[in-house]
Amino acid sequence: MEVKILDGANMDIDLTSSDQTSWKQMKCPRNEAEWSNTHKCAIKNVSICDYFCGIEYVDNVLCCYPNKNTLIDNKQQKLKKQ
Hints:
Oligomer: single chain
Number of domains: 1
Number of strands: 4
Shape: globular
Distance between the termini: 34 Å
Radius of gyration: 14 Å
Strand content: 15-25%
Number of helices: 2
Structural class: alpha+beta
Helix content: 10-25%
Order of helices and strands: HEEEEH
Strand order of the largest sheet: 1-2
């Protein structure tokens, strides 16, 4: 099977709805540290969390909290230079 990495998705991803799902959902480490439920991994048409590192099959969120994802910063810097 060949897997392609496709750029440009527009998605909503969060770990804030555990009481509204029929499956077990872990809590966002940033929300746990701040005793909140406000941070989301990706908000459609708005933003991507500084700690978001992607999605792993099937629906596992990759998070690097408390260290910011420097790959995002590097990609944005490359785009600015173009």
